[in-house]
Amino acid sequence: MLYRLSALWARCEIAVAALLAGMITVLILINVATRSARMAIYWIDEAAIYTMIWMTFLAASAAVHDRSAVAVTLVGDMLSDRAKARLVAVLDLVALGFGVALGWFCWLWFDPAGLAAAGFDIEAFQGNTFNFIYAEPTTTLGIRKAWVWLIMILFTFGFLLHAAANLSRSLPAVAAPGRSGE
């Protein structure tokens, strides 16, 4: 069940990342055309950058599900099937630990408890915590950067989901390396 939910989330991530890749292409083409006409639209550069950031994080999260991230397989390739299954389980556990750490850092960064304690008053929150995440605007778009940084929460959720799903499949393989864990 967890793995199917992870697969569904990964498909959604890839679909949105593909849509964002198309948007990047359109934004860059508009940018080239307007600059050629000497009528540059400056916010397009920033929009393309933020679109690329979102695309990259979504695709990276989906890569965790597919186990298709860049890896050095030299050690794993030299191991027996049982040792390889153990190595995969350990790596999945490390990935899950990294996801938990990422979640903790997002909690500290966005500080929803501090925001709630300030009565969701952004100015009071800033005064109490010196955290300006909810008020800092982007350079040319003029939106709050917190909207751009929300990708970190989505990435962390996807990363945790995929790492937990991978671990749920690799742990049974340690007990019986001949089975796929499905």
Automatic annotation (TrEMBL):
<dbReference type="Pfam" id="PF04290">
    <property type="entry name" value="DctQ"/>
</dbReference>
<keyword id="KW-1133">Transmembrane helix</keyword>
<dbReference type="InterPro" id="IPR055348">
    <property type="entry name" value="DctQ"/>
</dbReference>
<feature type="domain" description="Tripartite ATP-independent periplasmic transporters DctQ component">
    <location>
        <begin position="24"/>
        <end position="171"/>
    </location>
</feature>
<dbReference type="GO" id="GO:0022857">
    <property type="term" value="F:transmembrane transporter activity"/>
</dbReference>
<protein>
    <recommendedName>
        <fullName>TRAP transporter small permease protein</fullName>
    </recommendedName>
</protein>
<keyword id="KW-0812">Transmembrane</keyword>
<comment type="similarity">
    <text>Belongs to the TRAP transporter small permease family.</text>
</comment>
<dbReference type="GO" id="GO:0005886">
    <property type="term" value="C:plasma membrane"/>
</dbReference>
<feature type="transmembrane region" description="Helical">
    <location>
        <begin position="40"/>
        <end position="64"/>
    </location>
</feature>
<keyword id="KW-0997">Cell inner membrane</keyword>
<comment type="function">
    <text>Part of the tripartite ATP-independent periplasmic (TRAP) transport system.</text>
</comment>
<feature type="transmembrane region" description="Helical">
    <location>
        <begin position="146"/>
        <end position="165"/>
    </location>
</feature>
<keyword id="KW-0472">Membrane</keyword>
<comment type="subunit">
    <text>The complex comprises the extracytoplasmic solute receptor protein and the two transmembrane proteins.</text>
</comment>
<dbReference type="InterPro" id="IPR007387">
    <property type="entry name" value="TRAP_DctQ"/>
</dbReference>
<feature type="transmembrane region" description="Helical">
    <location>
        <begin position="85"/>
        <end position="110"/>
    </location>
</feature>
<feature type="transmembrane region" description="Helical">
    <location>
        <begin position="12"/>
        <end position="34"/>
    </location>
</feature>
<dbReference type="GO" id="GO:0015740">
    <property type="term" value="P:C4-dicarboxylate transport"/>
</dbReference>
<keyword id="KW-1003">Cell membrane</keyword>
<keyword id="KW-0813">Transport</keyword>
